Amino acid sequence: VLWYQGEANTKKSLEYGALMETLIANWRTQWKQEKLPFLLVQLPNFMEPKPEPTESSWAALRQQQLNTLKVPNTGLAITIDLGEWNDIHPLDKYDVGKRLSLQARKLVYGEKNLTASGPIFQSMKQNGNKLILSFSDIGTGFMIKKGNDLKEFAISGTDGKFVWAKAIIDGDKIIVWNDSVANPVKVRYAWADNPSEANLYNKEDLPASPFEAELK
What is the C-alpha separation between 3 and 150, in angstroms, rounded? Predict the structure, then answer.
């Protein structure tokens, strides 16, 4: 199953994960296929870019779609770089299909060594005023797609007020910080309706998924 939907759910984004898990379970039951592969397209970028970190129901729904990966035999085509600010139905369907095909080749057709996704956030730890982020799906390494500096990372302390963060690639980790935040506990990447400067990719030219995470 290739599933490209979610725009209509952005006003109630927090319930989307449970709805998708239920739908996947139900369809697998109806088709009598316990492992029916289910590949989702994450919502692309849309609407006007914002200059400062902000809340976003579109970003919240993308997080719900990302969370769906905990369901076995699912995949996610990340499309945060394929949308258009003024068109909810972006024109570039070719690259959406191409990224879905990578997921299908790996998940369904057994190309286990294929890099089928951009970087997916896994965990983080704190080191002083810095957060050290770990990812899966790095492929042959991280890459900055546009410019020389990573963009669209934001952090907050316990007050929950997000500010833009500096971010660097350190081997297979990403380190983020802002000198004004002594004790960072939350991080966001590409958390906006249209995070137009998001530029973290792997060297296979696949974009990192937007995400939000908090220190446990």
Answer: 30
